[in-house]
Design a protein that fits this description.
By secondary structure, the protein is α/β, with parallel strands linked by helices. The protein contains 6 helices and 5 strands. Strands 3-2-4-1-5 form a 5-stranded parallel β-sheet, sandwiched between helices. Helix 3 packs antiparallel against helix 4. This is DUF488 domain-containing protein.
Length: 147
């Protein structure tokens, strides 16, 4: 069974964030954000996150832009020009267009964690991505790190 974790960094202090990852046994953080250098990201800014992941939890870090939504898609949703349901369809179609299922070695995702900013997974592309991958390979256990 492949354990695939997800986590959002907002509403979590660094201590809680890294403790959740360490306690779960995460080996690699896969950043699924479009922009991983925003000052709003705080400790989760790409270069800092790579350092903290290695130093605090002996985890590796990767920014995978193929897993991110497009700016256009995200802006339409955030500006309420599309519903969550429309966003879901658009994002899942984008994964197909990018051939994510074919390009991703799903077995190697064991004990990896999909990261984005949303606090909870309900309306977040990291959940959609995890479920998309599970649809491709059913022996994935999705674990959302929240509390």
């Amino acid at each position: 069974m492949i354990k695939l974790y997800t986590i959002g960094f907002t509403e979590k202090p660094a201590e809680k964030f890294f403790n959740l990852l360490k306690t779960a046994g995460v080996k690699k953080i896969i950043d699924t954000r479009i922009n991983n250098v925003s000052q709003l990201a705080g400790f989760a800014k790409g270069s800092d996150l790579r350092f903290f992941a290695r130093e605090i939890g002996n985890m590796s870090y990767e920014h995978n832009i193929d897993f991110a939504p497009t700016k256009e898609l995200l802006t339409k949703y955030r500006d309420k020009k599309m519903s969550w349901e429309e966003y879901e369809v658009g994002y899942l179609n984008l994964l197909d267009i990018r051939r994510v299922a074919q390009k991703t070695n799903i077995e190697k995702l064991h004990e990896h964690c999909l990261l984005c900013s949303e606090h909870t997974p309900e309306k977040c592309h990291r959940r959609l991505l995890a479920e998309y991958l599970k649809h491709v390979k059913s022996d994935i256990e999705i674990i959302h790190l929240i509390k």
